[in-house]
Amino acid sequence: MAEVEETLKRIQSQKGVQGIIIINAEGIPIKSTLDNSSTVQYAGLLHQLVMKTRSTVRDLDPQNDLTFLRVRSKKNEIMIAPDKDYFLIVIQNPSD
Amino acid sequence: MTKMTNLNNTEKEHRILSHTDVLPDVPEDIFPMVLTSATQELFECRADEDVTQNNPYKLLKKDDILHDMKARAAVSDFHPVKQTVLNYPGEELLLVFDRDFKYGQSFYLVLTEEAKQRILQEPEEESEQYVCRTPEPQQPWVSLGSELEIEEESVKDTRERLKYLVSRVRKKFGAPVNFTDRNALESKEGYIECTSYQDRNFRLIQMERNSATQAVLNLKSSATQTQRTFPRNMYTQYKPRELTEEEKENYMSSENLKNFASSAFSRFEIAIQQNKIMDVFFDDWQALSEGDIAFGGKADTYLKEYQSFTDLQFSKDKSISCIKWHPTISGVIAVSVTEKMSFEERINGSTKLLLNPPLILFWSFSDPINPQLRLECPDDVLSFDFCPSDPNIIIGGCMNGQIVLWDVTAHAQRLHGKRSGERRTTSAYPGSFMAFEEDKENEIPVLLYCAVSSIENGHKAPVTDVQWLPENFEISITGVPVENQNQICVQVVTCAPDCCVMFWDIRAPRPAAHSQAERKQKMEEKQLENPRGIPNTFKYLDLSWKPLIKVYESVAVFVNETYKQCHLNMAHTHYHYIIITRFDIYLMPEGKVEYALLRVPSEKQLKPLEDISTMFCVGTEDGELVYTSWKLGKDDDSGRLLSGKPSRCFIVHDSLVNTVKRSPFFKDIILTVGGWNFAVWKESVMNGPIILSPCSQKRCMVGCWSLSNPGMFFIGKEDGNIEVWDLLEKTHEPSHIQNISTASITCMKPWIISSKQHFLAVSDDFGTLHILQIPWTLRNPSSSESSVNKYFEKEVTRLMFFDKRKETMAKQKTATEAEEQKKKTLSEKTEEESLAEYESYLTLEKDILKEMGVSLQEEDKPSNEV
Fold first, then answer.
1. Is A22 close to B242, i.e. CB distance below 8 A?
2. Which chain A residues contact residue B273 at CB under 8 A?
3. How far is the CA of B227 from the CAs of B221, B222, B230, B422, in angstroms?
4. Burial of B222 (0-12, 13-18, 19+ CB in 10 A)
5. Is the separation of the CB atoms in B484 and B471 below 8 Å?
6. What residue ranges are annotated as transmembrane (chain B) (predicted)?
7. Residue B478 to residues B66, B237, B467, B607: CA-CA distances in angstroms?
């Protein structure tokens, strides 16, 4: 547990990072640095997005797979790293 | 078998079956039997040897049979006929060989004498009988009359058959045949007709006819129809799935997650750092030259004059005291024109003043020469405001302390554009400027005020500031903000140097029954006489308008002076979403609100709003800023409602405060301008201004925030200069100074018409209204809100730091002083001790000198030592 915490701390200490969420394969948040309602909202929406993206990538080339997803918006950037069992989501504000 | 059964039923004794029972067609006196070969030899009746077909008879002695029967008892063949043989009368029994099995067995025994005789004689007779059979002799036929019928029926020739021979004349043989026609209708015999006739057989009407019927169950027709489904709103409510704490911990400590986290981290590191190094989506080229620059590249902060309005008749030699842009119609601006006279001059020249009534002029960009509308005022208006919910209602505060209401709905068309709409007859002023306005085509309409407040109940000093309260709340009589059910602005705040801040309500107050009737009467009467064409909107308030609440700022805490209010600024209200039940709104068909019918609702009906701040800031004539609440508290002694004590007062400016303005970007930053400097305040920080400008050489007359750039504001000076201050650029001096006119600036108001047109309306002491266009460099938000916020926060921390320092230093000072005091007292007490110390020191000195050989006393005897 300590190693995971340490990794999270290292990410959090980067400049501009607003929040980190770890969710399991079903989309239920495991750990988060944001408040509960935001976490739940992010988890639900991004889980679906990653599923869609992954299926898109695999449809185009079945031997390919999604490794990283970055969603850039006006106010911030959402980065998602998918895995077989977990997703790690980081929200960063790059312009600060 | 029936015989058998009869015998069984009737006779009880057992009876041996007779052969006739078994074989019913055998005569009774013959008994068929079987003879074994032993028996046959014994009785010499061997089949086909002794007895043959032709000679089948054999006579047997009775005694022999009996002997046989005795010898062989039951085995004997004659056993069955034992009784009969015993009873046989004769001496000899006949045994017949039945080769043809006529009676079923190969032998049969004749049981009676008669039968024996008969059978012995029979064969001869029988054979004879079988040889011939003669037919019976014929008898003569007896006639029974049948031959007559036969004769009748038979066909006989009654006579001889005649024979004829017919032939044609010889000459006609072989001659050609001549056919002739004959009309068939000539003679009746020519043809035979079969006419049709109605066969009478078929004229019979069938009266009865057989027909079949069938009984069937009752039939019933019925129908069904399914309900037509219609869409209906359905709701679901869901809750997100969450893990329990244990599960979370399980996950967190799982090996899987650890590996994942470490592998994912590297990806993130790259991405995050990439973002930090460079923002790839930022378009530098565009940012370099954003928007359009009028003069192609010149960094230009010059406020270009767009238009200037001055009226030779009405605003010449006068001063403009207040400017207000029309909130909805773009390009329309209103100014209030006042006389430049001091109080004494006013008293002396009051007659002249009555002749030239002061005005509010409406200017439109479309017409720089003529004002669009003139509003007549009872006295010089120092401040006026448009109602935010209905821009046709204007409220103004006059120099005599009255509040004035105008209703310009009739002229709204005119203000909208160049339309020759309704023309109103201007009132006949005695000796007024009417002489110049003989041209009826382009009349500038003059509108008189609808209502003024009552003189006794109003302010006692010139009203310096008026403001409308926002439409989402209103104030009740005790000063508690309650919900505004009408959602229109109905209340006004005014302040004056008589230490009063008054709240006014434009609705009719709750009257008693009889006064309502009175007022109705009054209204009916006055409706007839309406020569001046004043709209009746606020007739009910005319001359009887009383303020709702008076908030007195004279408080015993500050002994030296009472306050004279000059400028007012309301706290921003927090928008509170509540469901409002609308009642008491009477809307005219056009949708205009009928103010006369609005009533001030009783306090109980309204719900107080909790989250509206009741604090406001007032700037005073002496240069003070007062921050207080308008809620009325109860005075314990007298039981009257009194205003509360102000929470904060600060003397910052040297002369009267002429501007108290909130920043359009930050809700708690306030700019105050007065005397020779200005200050920026933060509402929550009540230690002092967060920014205080240095004193300038000329008086600052007015200030206003920029609408587009946070951290920028404009200051108008006494010498006609406009200073542009940008807090992020320079804080010790303005970033840009520009001279507008030679007279002092009296009022400034910025306005945004479109994204390219940002204007600043500046009025001066000459009565000229200048419209300046803010250039791109000044209107472009070069600084973001966050950076300005940061600056303010920095200032706040500085302030805090200084305050703290002051405190600590004060503490330290007192501490050191106390210490010193202590020391002093201590030192006084121990003077004797110090003398003693001095003595001991002297002796010590002597000893040391002695040791060193530099003693003063020993120098006198040097010879001894050597």
1. no
2. 14
3. 20, 16, 9, 61
4. exposed
5. yes
6. none
7. 166, 43, 19, 13
ipTM over 0.90: no
Residue A34's domain comprises 16-92
CATH number at residue A26: 3.30.450.30
B180 φ/ψ angles, rounded to the nearest 5 degrees = -125, 160
Q: Which amino acid is at B379?
A: D
Instruction: Give B553-570 pLDDT, tens digit per residue.
Output: 443 222 222 233 444 454
Question: pLDDT of A11-49, one tens digit each?
Answer: 888 888 999 999 999 989 999 999 999 999 999 999 999
Q: How far apart are CA B293 and CA B64, in angstroms?
A: 176
- The token pair at B184 is 């068939």
For residue B118, CA distances in Å to B105, B122, B124, B701 come to 20, 6, 11, 187
With 90 as the cut, is the pLDDT of residue B521 above it?
A: no
The two three-digit tokens of residue B782, written as one number: 């070069």
In residues, how long is chain B?
866
CA B447 – CA B424 distance, rounded (Å)? 9
Q: How confident is the model at residue B538 (pLDDT cuts 50, 70, 90)?
A: low
Residue B252 to residue A72, Cβ atoms within 8 A: no
Token digits of residue B626: 């007062």
Can you tell me the distance from the alpha carbon of B2 to that of B9, in angstroms, rounded to the nearest whole number? 10
* Domain membership flag for residue A59: yes
Bigger pLDDT: B398 vs B131: B398
C-alpha distances (whole Å) from B739 to each of B77, B720, B721, B764, B772 are 180, 6, 4, 12, 12
Distance of alpha carbon B260 from alpha carbon B384, whole angstroms = 68
A2 is a domain residue? no
B583 — pLDDT class (breaks 50, 70, 90): very low
* pTM passes above 0.90: no
If interface means Cβ-Cβ distance under 8 Å, which residues of chain A face chain B?
1, 3-5, 7-8, 10-11, 14-17, 22, 24, 26-31, 40, 43-44, 67-68, 70, 72, 77, 79, 81, 83, 85-86, 88, 90, 92, 94-95
Closest CA to A25 of A71, A87, A73: A87
Residue B563 has a pLDDT of 34
B759/B750 Cα distance (integer angstroms): 6
Residue A66, domain member (yes or no): yes
B241 touches chain A (CB under 8 A): yes
The per-residue pLDDT for range B825-860, each reduced to its tens digit, is 777 767 788 888 899 999 999 999 988 887 665 444
Q: Tell me what pLDDT residue B588 has.
A: 31
Residues in chain A: 96
Residue B718 CB neighbour total at 10 angstroms? 16
Sign, Cα dihedral of B149, B155, B160, B166: positive
* Beta carbons within 8 Å of A66's beta carbon, 6+ residues apart: A50, A53, A54, A57, A58, A82
| Residue A4 maps to a domain | no
- The tally of domains found in chain A comes to 1
End-to-end CA distance of chain B, in Å?
Answer: 206
> Helix-strand-coil percent breakdown of chain A, rounded to 5?
40, 30, 30
Task: Give the residue among A68, A71, A21, A16 at the shortest CA–CA distance from A44.
Answer: A21
Nearest by CB to A3, from B240, B258, B272: name it.
B258
Supply B237's token pair: 């409510």
